[in-house]
Each structure stands twice: as structure tokens, then as C-alpha cells.
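Quick start: read one record
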Amino acid sequence: MELSCKSEYAILALLEMATHYENGEPMQIRQIANQQNIPDRYLEQLLATLRRGGIVKSQRGSKGGYFLAREPWKISVLDILECLEGFDIKAAEEDSNPKSIDSSMVEEIWQEARQAANSVLQKYSLQDLCEKRDLRKQLDIMYYI
């Protein structure tokens, strides 16, 4: 399993929105893109997908932009990846049709790995990622003093 560039950019953009969640104002694509070094056009496409998936909302107008549709602690990394990548463990289980004992065994191991990965991804929310980032920033500052 590997994190796609699309998913990484989306998580970074959502982290930026989670950081500014408390002020309640939408963030413009340009703001997010500059802070996280994401190409504007690509970010626009990602945010449209996240909006359709119910992760973010948009607001039109001069003070418009994007903001989180739910609180940062209610959005898991798994929610984001499912929205962007469209993978679902239940669908994968139904599609598998092993032809031999060997392939059945391999499929069971793969399912177990997928379930373990999903469990970890479900455990972390955007709020958790923000807190981890802030802690690392503090430790980094302390290290250089």
C-alpha cells in the first residue's frame, strides 16, 4: 500500500483547513495552496471531490472559499482516503473469488493486512494529525535552543 500524491495533497490541504477551523471563515484555494505548496489547479479538483464526498463545504462570494464540513476530530484519515480513492474493504471482500487453497490463503492474508491498515487510518482524525504536527514543531524548537 502506498499513499498517492492525490491523497497526500488532500490531507495536507485538510490539515491547513483544520488549523484554521476555529476562526470559522472559509479558506481560499490560493491560501491553502501557498501554505502547503500544492498546485492551485490540482487543489481545486481535489477540493471539488472532497466537497462531493461531504468532507468539505464551499461558500461563494468575495469572502468565499472552502471549510471543513465537520469538526476536525470527526474526520478520519480513512474517511478522506475512501472519498478520494474510492476503496472499500467490504467491496474488496465480495469481489474476491479464490480458485485454489493457495490463492484463498493469500487473499485471507491480504484482507487481514487491509483491515489492519484501515483500523489505523480510522484511528487518526484531522485533529490528531494537527496535534502531532504541533508537538513535533515544539520538539523541533526545543531541540535547537
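The first helix runs from residue 5 to 19.
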